[in-house]
Write a structure and sequence with these properties.
By secondary structure, the protein is an all-alpha fold. Helix 1 packs antiparallel against helix 4, helix 4 packs antiparallel against helix 5 and helix 5 runs antiparallel to helix 6. The protein is elongated.
């Protein structure tokens, strides 16, 4: 097995870190919403916030923060990145269960479905990348 990762590996990991940092920023913005901010939203969004269980907020936090940590692990070529990215993927799955099963986010429009689909696909691809990195000896 080669101990040298391909040249594309680190740039991909950096882009993935930036993606997850945007998720962290979105999470922090969401966490800072006041009741007045929510009152200014449309009815569908207000209903989603009212139906959101606390564990869904926790799942989102795990998804974004573990994703960012996992991407740092990829950048520094550490094996533990895999477990962080698995935790992130689990957070995304639980977030989606809450969004679509409990909060009925699909009623908020196609944008929510598309964005969450992208988030899920990226999380899966990052887990697969970390697994490949371990299998090929890129992560130590």
């Amino acid at each position: 097995m080669s101990s040298n990762a391909p040249k594309w590996f680190r740039p991909v990991a950096i882009v993935a870190l930036l993606w997850n940092l945007m998720g962290c920023a979105a999470y922090l913005a969401d966490a800072r919403l006041t009741p007045d901010d929510i009152a200014q939203m449309g009815e569908a969004q207000q209903a989603m916030y009212a139906a959101r269980p606390a564990w869904a907020v926790g799942a989102t936090a795990i998804a974004v923060w573990a994703g960012a940590i996992g991407c740092l692990g990829l950048i520094f070529r550490k094996r533990w990145a895999f477990m962080a990215l698995v935790a992130s993927l689990a957070g995304v799955v639980f977030q989606d269960i809450a969004l679509f099963g409990i909060m009925k986010a699909a009623s908020a429009g196609a944008g929510v479905l598309i964005m969450q689909g992208i988030v899920l696909v990226v999380a899966i691809l990052l887990v697969l990348l970390a697994r490949k990195g371990i299998d090929r000896g890129w992560l130590t």
